[in-house]
Design goal:
119 residues
Length: 119
Amino acid sequence: MGLDLSSAWDDEEWSDEEEADSVQLMRILPDISRTTLELLRHTVGLFPEERVAARASRVADLVLKEYGSDGLRLLSINLATLATVHIEHNAVLTRRPLQSLLDDLDETRREMRAEGPGD
């Protein structure tokens, strides 16, 4: 059930292939970073939340068309990095443990899944 992510957590050392891949990704990073921020500018505060998913999906499709899977990888990396930084920042400001904030996010995910589309 689900994707096995265990190999994603092993980042102690990079292979030559991963290093070359990183250099390739750096070429399109400025464009994808701008795209990421533009996506956030047009989704933060958007209601209902389904509109966020629709806009994000359209942006992902455009990134895929223009930059291929490397662009999607960078979009994912940017969004994960921004989310991580903001969750950590929120934990400091609210003096809550990171795990507590992540548990809240997981609870929200479960609630959205239970409601399902169109409910």
